[in-house]
Amino acid sequence: MSVQIWSIIGLVLIFLIATLRSVNMGAVAFLGTFLVGTFLIHDSADDLFAGFPGDLFAVLVGVTLLFAIAKSNGTVDWLIQAGVRAVRGRIALVPWVMFLVTSLLTMVGAVVPGAVAIMAPIGLSFAARYRINPMLMGLLIINGATAGGFSPISIFGSITNGVVERSGLPGNPLLLWGSQFVFNLALSVVVFFLFGGRELLHRKVETESDPNDRIEEVPSGGSGTTTITDTATITEVTTLNPQRALTLTGLIVLAIGALALEFDVGLLSLSIATVLCVIFPRSTTACVGQVAWPTVLLICGVVTYVSMMERVGTIEFLGDGVAGIGAPLLAAFVICLIGAAVSAFASTTGILGALIPLAVPFLLTGQVGVMGMIIALTVASSVVDSSPFSTSGALVVAGSPPELRDGVFRKLMIWGMSMIAIGPVVACLLFVLPGWL
Questions:
Q1: CB-CB contact of 350 with 26 (8 Å)
Q2: How far apart are CA 188 and CA 135, in angstroms?
Q3: CA 98 → CA 111, 129, 145, 257, 305, distances in Å?
């Protein structure tokens, strides 16, 4: 067999071993890079490490370190509570506040599972207390994380845009983010009315103005009205002390610097995080340990292996095969279907780093629009994150009340599995078939 075939077999084994044995996919990918690259391709160590994504490493470490600092010093809590207070008695808006706050967190650099891990317990506790369907709350949190997760300074966005740039394809980071946000917003509207949102429109919450009062539920007498006030603890958490204000300023500087001034996201986020560590050394010491090191390992390992595949011509070999299908729309659908099916049981971050390069030869034929195909692939690969076998879906199951956990698991499994079939179809119809991207 050719080295291209062996490298494909290696990639399949990487996904299988990582999934079946619950091992970090990046670690397995480094193992595959060593074995395939050294004994089959006969590359030197310098050749193998030439594919290591140093820019993505800086982005992943920088943004997750900055987010860890924001989480530890209460800045994240301030953002969450500011969003919740914004409902001011309109309980139907609470799931949408969770959607927007989660999207904000991932937009400024939080990894999607990390943002869901923070928001899911809060949102689902609120849902249990005020009789909101946990599926509604959980799915809007997941959709919100994905909606913000493709911004140019986010993890998903950085991975996708980096792969597109290294592949020599024309990219449009803002169009990618905008398309993902609109798609997930529209999907959330469907979820809202499918899982009881219409009933929430007729329920009200009365809020008292004293911020030092205690949160309590008052008997409604059948009116469906609940009184909510704030606690002294929440008032303390949401106070913008100097450390939180400076952290919030740092997040704003990161957004402006990356979007408007086009500074390198990794270097800028690392710089801001380092400044915060220098100013507040005691409270930030433990934050380095909270960097998403498993995600860093996963991404760097997969990208390094895929870079080796590119170097030996495997990507071109596969792309020519997909292009040979003859029907461009069918070929696009096949690629999206593969992304959805694998991502439902594995890491979306790993899939994005692996499948976009596989689609490059097909995209270079000009049979479909490049940005349309990239957006469709990212939509198909991320919409299945609601599967309970995916990290985000599993976090929602774990955050559900114990008596509802089994039911939420079953419903998320049905929803997630249905997205494997529906996601690629809708993505291709919206972004590939019209040919406008």
A1: yes
A2: 11
A3: 16, 15, 10, 26, 37
pLDDT tens per residue, range 150-176: 998 888 888 888 888 877 778 888 999
SS3 194: helix
List the structure tokens of 414.
């049905």
Reported confidence tier of residue 89, pLDDT bands at 50, 70, 90: low
Give this prediction's pTM.
Answer: 0.68
Confidence of residue 177 (pLDDT cuts 50, 70, 90): very high
How far is 176 from 337, CA to CA, in rounded Å?
A: 19
Amino acid identity, residue 118?
A: I
Rounded Cα gap, residues 123 and 129, in angstroms: 10
Nearest-angstrom CA–CA distance, 114 and 104? 13
Please say whether the beta carbons of 18 and 28 come within 8 A. Answer: yes
Task: Name the region of 48 (left: φ>0; alpha: ψ -120 to 50; beta: rest).
Answer: alpha
d(CA 373, CA 361): 12
